[in-house]
Amino acid sequence: MNKERLHYGSDQSGLICAYLFTGQEAGKALRGDEVLQYLGQAQNLAPAHFIWLHFNLANASTEKWLREHSQSPEEFYESLHQGSRSTRIEHADQHLIAVVNDVLHDFSFDPSEIATLWLNVSRNMMISTRRKPLKSVDHLRNAVNAGEIFQSPMELLTHLLRDQADVLTEIVRDATTKIDEVEDHLLAERLSRKRANLGELRRLLVRLQRLLAPEPAALFRLLQKPPAWMADNDVHELRQSTEEFSVVLSDMASLQERIKLLQEEIAAHVGEQNNRSLFVLTIVTVLALPINITAGLMGMNVGGIPWAQDENGFWIVVALISLITAIAAWVARHFENKD
């Protein structure tokens, strides 16, 4: 395989990259023919040796190739087509089936930029598949290419979960910056469309928390009864990584609560402004009422209109209107001060 050419692509089988690990040195990149060779002798690999295969599931031939050349359990293929994609790790026939949600490389706080990574982990192999380029698994590839040494497939999985927590931490940090900006606009009384922006951000965080939070029941069963090939140190590292991930999810929940309180504050501020505008409009209407009533009465073409023949009739009417308007203004000001 041409590694530069396959940075986000894959070969005809859908394989993006493949590595062989010996436990003593950095992972060695494998070509397509070498992958088939190692798969043929996977059961005879040394205990410390294992391989990682990463596939592009958007390639139509990927699933067929996996069925023909790997010994993945049927539960793995069923998970590829299940509607539920919440993050979970389950034990199936000496294999771990993991469903991990992640964000795309160019994540821009759009809910459509969340995608799924499926993994099948066994004693000497980890198979990962995705339909879109994802951040966390790419961080794992960069770590392998940088020469980081891994002792087991579970170390790869644990590293991936920690990379996912780092990505989520970055999202929370960026979301916090956006919320700080909204608060600054609120203090400066320049809200514009910030309330709608907060709603979009809150919905995104809720969806991220729902998809990324591991299912406690499945994880509890795995940690209580891990596969026989899973070392105690791997169990400890997996438990520790999930605890770190839970801290990030807790920070995300706190951020959602902060957004909720900020939305309520903005709603109260907008409601106060609306009430103020309505009060001013009411005052203007009350002050204009004497003029409108008097003009309507004086404009009727009927007999008996007072001061119609008096040369000072106009000024008398103006004085009465001014007096009534002044009284109405005083009453309105009194109620305003009372509020």
UniProtKB/TrEMBL annotation:
This chain belongs to which protein, by name?
Transporter
Provide one Gene Ontology cellular component.
plasma membrane
Q: Which InterPro entries match?
A: CorA_cytoplasmic_dom, CorA_TM1_TM2, MgTranspt_CorA/ZnTranspt_ZntB
- Please tell me whether the keyword Flavoprotein is annotated for this protein: no
Q: How does it sit in the membrane?
A: Multi-pass membrane protein
Q: Could you tell me one molecular function GO term of this UniProt entry?
A: magnesium ion binding
Q: Where are the transmembrane segments?
A: 278-300, 312-332
Subcellular localization is given as: Cell membrane
Q: Which organism is it from?
A: Undibacterium baiyunense
Q: Which UniProt keywords apply?
A: Cell inner membrane, Cell membrane, Ion transport, Membrane, Transmembrane, Transmembrane helix, Transport, Zinc
Which Gene3D superfamilies does this chain map to?
CorA soluble domain-like (3.30.460.20), Magnesium transport protein CorA, transmembrane region (1.20.58.340)
Pfam families this protein is in? CorA
Entry annotated with the keyword Transmembrane: yes
Q: Family assignment?
A: Belongs to the CorA metal ion transporter (MIT) (TC 1.A.35) family.
